[in-house]
Design a protein that fits this description.
alpha+beta; two-stranded antiparallel ribbon
Amino acid sequence: MAELKTKETENCVIEFIEQVESPKKREDAYLLLDVFQEATGYPAKMWGPSIIGFGSYHYIYASGHEGDAPLVGYSPRKAKISLYFATGDDQREELLKGFGKYTSGKGCIYINKVADIDLDVLKALINQSVTFLQETYPDNP
């Protein structure tokens, strides 16, 4: 089985944020750091080279594939900021109705800047994702 690329590392979150080229995106990355830490109660950890994750869970799919992933996270990428929440949660779509300006992919929500979104809805999305994953994978710490 292929080894997972996105694993928790010992890399420094602040050093990573400081390397973000755009001053505005760097400012947004720090704001998101505060929001995610406050909402989850977990410290920020680097996952792979570019994802800032909070908490973790161990998953096992019906196929037998298993691994560890952050409960929630984000990445201030060059084009957009990627927000990582649980997939498969029906309540996510309802919350996104009041979120603001975003696009979405399979497992990510993409925003251009924090000013485009409602921070209270972001906190609700974070909390819902954490709750959903902890209920779906209850054997995690």
